[in-house]
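User: Reviewer 2 asked us to show a designed sequence for the structure in our supplementary figure. I'm pasting the structure tokens here. Could you produce the per-position amino acids so we can include them in the response letter?
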């Protein structure tokens, strides 16, 4: 496959905000993202997204998503239009986008080291 034809991807660092008692599992977060993207884009648009939940940390309530580069803005907007996750008062907030997972991982480490006194 030619390099110009291959899938160009972006990674999104997100955080689940909401009630402190609302602990969400990775499956609940994945299902919520799947449903919100499917309702926003439809089946054909969802197929073009090439969405994948790369990782999610229950303790930090942060995760990394992958999607197609040309639809990043619409991808992020779909989370703003959706309500609570799994019947709980929680929402997804996108913190940063990047072309590599390494850059997002370094930003997470940098933010956690600055938060410690």
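Assistant: Here is a per-position design you can include in the supplement:
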């Amino acid at each position: 496959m030619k390099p110009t034809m291959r899938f160009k991807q972006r990674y999104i660092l997100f955080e689940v905000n909401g009630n402190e008692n609302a602990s969400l599992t990775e499956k609940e977060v994945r299902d919520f993202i799947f449903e919100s993207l499917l309702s926003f884009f439809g089946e054909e648009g969802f197929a073009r997204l090439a969405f994948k939940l790369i990782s999610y940390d229950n303790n930090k309530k942060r995760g990394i998503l992958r999607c197609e580069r040309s639809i990043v803005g619409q991808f992020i907007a779909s989370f703003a239009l959706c309500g609570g996750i799994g019947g709980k008062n929680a929402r997804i907030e996108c913190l940063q986008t990047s072309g590599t997972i390494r850059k997002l991982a370094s930003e997470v480490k940098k933010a956690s080291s600055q938060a410690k006194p």
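For the response letter, you might also mention the following. Helices lie at 26-49, 72-80, 101-115. The chain is about 40% helix and 25% strand.
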